[in-house]
Amino acid sequence: MLQIKLKIKLMEKSNNTQYLIYIDILSIFKIAKDIQWLTIRQDSLYRILYLSSVLYAFRHDKSKNPFSIYRFIVDTTGPYDANISKAITFLIKDEYIERAGGEDIYKLGNNSASNVFDFHLEEERIDWIKQIIYILGIYGENKIYEFIFRDPQYQTTIKSNTQQGLNTETDNETTKTLVLFKEAFEESLGDSIQDISSQTYLELYFEYIFSKILKRED
């Protein structure tokens, strides 16, 4: 196990961005396993990290987005980042994850023992990924899939018919749309907004957004 830790530490020193991508992906698998989501499709990894990025910009508009390391482009199946694809290839090669029942379906591998995740990393980063995965667990991936493909930023990029990347900063079209509903949503919560956790806020907000955006209500 020391050899595994040493290998990841060396990656951290040589390429911090790629190291973070490895840890983000492994964290997704571990958090998902905790809620009995034992296998994950490759497309789901892209979508989870895209949502982590664009929703962070919405909830923490005054803070630097720790997920700005990703450079998503539009793909036929959803958001795509070549560095995530490279990271998946590496993690398979070194048996941190392995194929499970299909070419693009994966699960934790032999080298993914619990202490692989003991590295010091911003707690906020891991906690945010956990919140996104829990949202997936509540509403189901198909619902999130629909949200992404109706995502204003995603649609704007598709219609532009260019190779430009997806904007995940605070001025992106998705964040602007979500902000439009924020005031009315928070008014509906009343004083209770002071007492709810960040995760509960997201759960309730997604319920509100799904009813407004996906049903195309005013």
Write the layout of secondary structure elements.
Elements: H1 2-14, H2 16-34, E1 40-41, H3 42-59, E2 73-75, E3 78-80, H4 82-93, E4 97-99, E5 105-108, H5 123-139, H6 141-150, H7 152-160, H8 173-189, H9 198-214
Antiparallel strand pairs: 1-5, 2-3, 4-5
What general outline do the C-alpha atoms trace?
Answer: globular
Q: Quick one: biggest sheet?
A: 3 strands, antiparallel
Structural class: mainly alpha
SSE order, one letter for each helix or strand: HHEHEEHEEHHHHH
Which ranges are low-confidence, i.e. pLDDT below 50, for 5 or more consecutive residues? Answer: 1-14
What is the tally of helical segments?
9
Q: Residue-averaged pLDDT, rounded?
A: 76
Helix-residue proportion: 55-70%
How big is the Rg?
A: 18 Å
Q: Roughly what fraction of the amino acids lie in strands?
A: 5-15%
Number of domains: 1
What is the distance, rounded to the nearest whole angstrom, between the alpha carbons of the first and last residues? Answer: 55 Å
The number of distinct β-strands equals: 5
Q: In order across it, which strands form the biggest sheet? A: 1-5-4
Task: Give an overview in words.
- The protein has one domain (2-214).
- It has nine helices and five strands, in the order ααβαββαββααααα.
- The chain has 218 residues and is mainly alpha-helical.
- The chain has helices at residues 2-14, 16-34, 42-59, 82-93, 123-139, 141-150, 152-160, 173-189, 198-214; strands at 40-41, 73-75, 78-80, 97-99, 105-108.
- α1 (2-14) packs across α2 (16-34), α3 crosses α5 and α7 (152-160) packs antiparallel against α8 (173-189).
